[in-house]
Specification:
Layout (H helix, E strand, L loop, with lengths): L1 E3 L5 E5 L4 E6 L15 E2 L5 E6 L4 E6 L4 E7 L7 E6 L5 E6 L5 E5 L3
Antiparallel strand pairs: 1-2, 2-3, 4-5, 5-6, 6-7, 8-9, 9-10
């Protein structure tokens, strides 16, 4: 499980053992880090995605290395990320927006 903390970090927990398993530095712009945010973890546990840049982009982390891989801009102007999901094979991310009613699909391999 992943939870964005008020200091902008992301706390990680192992849902099986119920133990903390580390933190991630977001390294992204957040004007309101306390706003609840959706995150998604790939089935194999290799990729974590979450909102970045005040909900206008998604951040993609290599979870085993605890390293931010990239930030993908999704919204330009109006709208923000409301929900996220990763395909079962880990190759794509679906991003739902607030106010737009659109779902964007991103190829995470490229």
């Amino acid at each position: 499980m992943a939870l964005r903390m008020s200091d902008k970090s992301i706390a990680l927990w192992n849902a099986t053992t119920h133990q903390a398993s580390g933190t991630l530095s977001t390294d992204t712009l957040e004007t309101d880090p306390s706003w609840p945010r959706s995150m998604a973890l790939s089935r194999n546990g290799d990729v974590l995605i979450g909102p970045a840049d005040t909900g206008h982009a998604i951040a993609v982390w290599d979870l085993p290395k605890r390293q931010l891989k990239q930030i993908l801009p999704v919204f330009h102007g109006h709208g923000a990320i409301a929900s996220l999901a990763i395909s079962p094979d880990g190759s794509r991310a679906a991003v739902g927006g607030t106010g737009s009613g659109n779902i964007f699909v991103w190829d995470l391999r490229r």
